[in-house]
Amino acid sequence: MRFSPGRLVVHRNVRHGRIGWARPARVVSDDDRGLLLWVAQGSQVASEVTEDGRGMRTMPFTEWVTFGYRLHVSPWSGPPVLKFLPAGADHSVWFFRDEAGRFANWYVNLEEHGIRWDDGELAGVDVVDQDLDVVIRPDHTWAWKDEEEFAERLALPEHYWVPDGAVVRAEGERVIKMAEAGQFPFDGTWCDFVPDPTWTPLALPAGWDRPPVR
User: Fold this and answer.
1) Domains of the chain, with CATH numbers?
2) Which of 57, 99, 160, 165 has an alpha carbon 20 to 30 Å from 146's alpha carbon atom?
3) Average of pLDDT values for 139-164?
């Protein structure tokens, strides 16, 4: 399944069969290397919160798992971001920018590789975000991110959506070696990407919350 450049798709994170977050994006390219997406700043996104409106990071995981959940829709407050989902890989690479729009750093989001879906009117890709991440600086130095959250959630295997923390960390270590060596996509590719000027912030399209494929 390939998506045409310019098509609107929904990038979604799935936790135990429910949507954790959803973001509308434009397809930049889709080829043998993988899927490249653009998320415009200010786009309408959805994130899972408790019934009283709190996010998962506002409380200990032991407390989070005791609540019911709903999806809260709001504007994407982060910077515009280019997301690369390598074909078949258990991670994605996000290209972050500074306030002036210049490349700032790579962000390796460790995740179960995406499964695509296409309903004709709407299409998307569902991943399982595994929470542990790696920040790769322009000089190819790096740092783990969210290690404490990752360890805290692994301690509750009956509730957590990551079955094997060692596998996740091994994938991160594999990508770190690629980054240190300056291998694609850490070789400057897409660091100067300029989106189509017509790609303004997107609203979540009808059907964005259809049942996950995972």
Assistant:
1) 8-180 (2.40.380.10)
2) 99
3) 97
